[in-house]
Recover the amino acids of this structure.
């Protein structure tokens, strides 16, 4: 066992304690990673506050992990000491079911093991990336390409894969009209990826305060959803709408923005149910869909794609003592656009 400094939430919504946690002995197929950076995803906040229910405490969040390999087990051939690597939302899956075989471990029939707020198949609690070291099965460790800085790669491990997967699945490309709803952590990466895939991208944000940034990220158009004329103006416009909003939306209003056969894909995960009218779908043979993170082959492909196309998250690097304030700002939509923790500050004086 290895002890490592970590930020741990003792109970729902309580402030983080700087503490130490134990990581397991290196198994044959394990990789020990010195974590350098970890992004703050809105899912961390939902779970630390137990907004989805079922949270397990103490909790060490963090599933946007970027670091360097410190040691590998005897059976590991895919990663070597010194490699720059990442870990996203999953750390294990059965490896045998049809979804694992297809590289879509997020749908594993045995339920994939989440990076934190979950249990390994042997019952051990999982602890995430707000810590300085982690031990992860080699299959769940991805390579960070040379073209990406470690701190920029971190948010891609969740925000990147969660937006890349549906854009790829619904075959976004040259000429596709895509709207991204919400330009936060996921949204600002989604805009860049969709634009790099060749789509004509529109941002639908609460206000126009981030318009300049949206256009710089590759959007062609930018509208405020607080202006109700937006919904009239954009009626039946989009092939695909990617909803990245953490709160409930008026789903009917957004369905009305789809062309015939268009799809509204929800990746945002509010705790309360959404509702929609059947006629909002029937009228235009529209679809309402969801999408969950992405599998390991796609995660590697996404990182390579981002390095090749210059997709770079806009980050604000913070120390361990700034995490609570960062959570407040994410909740107020005042993030530009992803907070990333410099994990070397965990356990340092003042943290
Ligand atoms: P975030 O940084 O807080 O971004 C969400 C954005 O939604 C905000 O920046 C804001 O954008 C908009 N928004 C917030 N409240 C709103 C409201 N009341 N009405 C309208 N728009 C609002 O969060 P994130 O880290 O990108 O995560 C977004 C959601 O995706 C969370 O619920 C998270 O749990 C979920 N998620 C899902 C998956 C998955 O696999 N499906 C993976 C990761 C995260 P504007 O200021 O531009 O309006
Ligand atoms: Zn996430």
């Amino acid at each position: 066992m290895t002890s490592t400094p970590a930020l741990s939430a003792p109970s729902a919504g309580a402030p983080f304690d700087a503490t130490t946690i134990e990581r397991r002995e290196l198994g044959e197929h394990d990789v020990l990673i010195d974590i350098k950076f970890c992004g703050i995803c809105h899912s961390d906040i939902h779970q630390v506050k137990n907004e989805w229910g079922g949270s397990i405490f103490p909790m060490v969040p963090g599933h946007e992990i970027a670091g360097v390999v410190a040691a590998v087990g005897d059976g590991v051939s895919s990663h070597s000491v010194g490699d720059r690597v990442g870990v996203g939302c999953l750390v294990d899956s059965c490896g045998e079911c049809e979804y694992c075989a297809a590289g879509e471990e997020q749908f594993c029939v045995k339920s994939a093991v989440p990076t934190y707020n979950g249990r390994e198949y042997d019952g051990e609690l999982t602890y995430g990336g707000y810590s300085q070291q982690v031990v992860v099965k080699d299959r769940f460790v991805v390579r960070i390409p040379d073209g990406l800085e470690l701190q920029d790669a971190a948010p891609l491990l969740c925000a990147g894969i969660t937006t890349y997967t549906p854009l790829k699945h619904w075959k976004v490309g040259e000429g596709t009209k895509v709207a991204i709803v919400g330009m936060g952590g996921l949204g600002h990466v989604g805009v860049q990826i969709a634009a790099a895939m060749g789509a004509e991208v529109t941002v639908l944000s609460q206000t126009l305060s981030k318009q300049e940034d949206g256009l710089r990220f590759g959007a062609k158009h930018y509208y405020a959803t607080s202006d109700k004329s937006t919904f009239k103006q954009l009626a039946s416009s989009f092939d695909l709408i990617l909803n990245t909003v953490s709160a409930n939306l008026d789903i009917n209003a957004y369905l009305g923005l789809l062309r015939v056969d268009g799809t509204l894909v929800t990746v945002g995960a509010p705790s309360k149910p959404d509702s929609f009218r059947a006629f909002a779908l029937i009228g235009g043979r529209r679809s309402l869909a969801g999408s969950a993170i992405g599998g390991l082959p796609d995660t590697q492909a996404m990182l390579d794609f981002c390095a090749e196309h210059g997709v770079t998250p806009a980050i604000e690097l913070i120390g361990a003592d700034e995490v609570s304030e960062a959570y407040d700002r994410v909740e107020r939509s005042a993030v530009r656009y992803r907070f990333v923790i410099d994990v070397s500050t965990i356990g340092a004086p003042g943290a």
User: Anything to note?
Assistant: The CA atoms of residues 113 and 120 lie 6 Å apart.
